[in-house]
C-alpha cells in the first residue's frame, strides 16, 4: 500500500481477496527529533476498524528501565512520544521469547550497552485472531541487532482444568435447581458426606453446563438471526400485528440478557470481575484472556 525510507505498510489478502491482516514494517531513525516526527506520521497508518494489524521493526526506542542495561540510565521522558503513539494507535507490545535485549553496542567492560530496540506490536483484533502467535528473538552474527521471527502455532494441550464455579451460572434459575437436587441425595459415611456432596455438585453443574446451556456465542448468533427475521417481517407490512412486536421485544430482552452473561463469562476468564462495566463490550476481556494464556504458555 505504501513505502518509503522508514516504513512499509502492506494490506494482506487471502486467496478470495478478503482482508487477512495489515502488516507494517518500521525503522525508527536514530535521531530523536526525526523519530519524533515519524511517530506523529505513524498514526496515519492505522487500518480500518476490526482488522488485524501487526507492526514490527528496529524502532530505536525503549519503553522502560528493564529494556536497557549499562551506561546512562533510562529517562522516561525520552520514551513519551513513542508511548503516546502506541496509545493513539491502540497497539500492544507483543512480548517475546528469548534474550531480553535485541541490540548491543559491541564495546567491552563498563562501556557495553544492551537495549531492546526491536519489537512487534499488535492491535486487539490481531490478538483475537492470532492468539497463539509468538515473537522469538534469534541470535545472529551478521548484525548488532538480533533477528526476530513471528510464528503462529497452536498451544500445547494441557490436562483437564480444575473445577471452577462460573459466575454466569448465577444468572440462570436452573442453577439453583441443579444444586438442590444433587444436594438432597442421601449419602452414607459421615466423614465424607460433605466431600461427596460437593463432588457430585461439581459433576452435575459441569453436565448441566455442557449439555443444557448452549455456548453463549452460538445462542447470541441464533437470537440475532431470529430478531433480524422478525424485524424484516415487521418492516414488510404497514401495520404489523401486536404478536410480532411482542415477539421482537421478547427476543431483544433475551438477547440483552445473553450479552450480560457473555460479559460476565469473559470478565471471569480475564480475572477482572471487579472491572465489569455494563457497556456490554467484551473485546477488552477477550484480549486480556488471550494475553494471560500467552503468558501462561511462556511460563510453562
UniProtKB/TrEMBL annotation:
PANTHER family associated with the record: BNAC02G09200D PROTEIN, DNASE I-LIKE SUPERFAMILY PROTEIN
UniProt-recorded name of the protein: Endonuclease/exonuclease/phosphatase domain-containing protein
Species: Coptis chinensis
Amino acid at each position: 500500500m505504501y513505502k518509503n525510507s522508514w516504513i512499509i505498510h502492506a494490506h494482506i489478502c487471502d486467496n478470495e481477496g478478503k482482508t487477512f491482516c495489515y502488516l507494517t514494517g518500521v525503522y525508527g531513525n536514530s535521531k530523536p527529533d526525526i523519530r519524533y516526527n515519524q511517530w506523529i506520521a505513524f498514526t496515519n497508518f492505522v487500518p480500518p476498524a476490526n482488522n488485524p494489524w501487526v507492526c514490527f521493526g528496529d524502532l530505536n526506542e525503549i519503553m522502560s528501565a528493564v529494556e536497557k542495561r549499562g551506561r546512562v540510565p533510562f529517562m522516561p521522558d525520552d520514551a513519551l512520544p513513542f508511548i503516546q503513539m502506541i496509545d493513539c494507535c491502540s497497539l500492544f507490545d507483543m512480548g517475546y521469547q528469548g534474550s531480553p535485549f535485541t541490540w548491543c553496542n559491541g564495546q567491552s567492560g563498563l562501556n557495553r550497552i544492551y537495549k531492546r530496540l526491536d519489537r512487534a506490536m499488535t492491535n486487539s483484533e490481531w490478538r483475537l485472531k492470532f492468539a497463539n502467535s509468538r515473537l522469538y528473538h534469534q541470535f545472529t552474527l551478521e548484525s548488532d541487532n538480533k533477528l526476530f521471527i513471528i510464528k503462529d502455532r497452536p498451544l500445547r494441550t494441557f490436562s483437564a482444568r480444575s473445577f471452577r464455579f462460573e459466575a454466569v451460572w448465577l444468572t440462570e434459575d436452573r442453577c439453583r435447581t441443579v444444586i438442590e437436587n444433587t444436594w438432597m441425595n442421601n449419602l452414607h459415611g459421615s466423614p465424607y458426606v460433605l466431600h461427596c456432596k460437593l463432588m457430585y455438585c461439581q459433576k452435575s453443574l459441569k453436565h448441566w453446563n455442557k449439555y443444557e446451556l448452549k455456548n453463549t456465542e452460538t445462542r447470541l448468533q441464533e437470537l440475532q438471526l431470529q430478531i433480524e427475521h422478525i424485524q424484516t417481517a415487521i418492516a414488510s407490512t404497514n401495520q404489523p400485528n401486536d404478536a410480532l412486536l411482542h415477539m421482537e421485544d421478547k427476543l431483544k430482552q433475551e438477547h440483552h440478557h445473553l450479552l450480560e452473561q457473555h460479559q460476565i463469562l469473559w470478565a471471569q476468564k480475564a480475572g477482572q470481575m471487579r472491572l465489569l462495566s455494563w457497556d456490554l463490550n467484551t473485546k477488552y476481556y477477550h484480549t486480556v484472556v488471550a494475553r494471560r494464556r500467552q503468558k501462561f504458555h511462556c511460563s510453562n
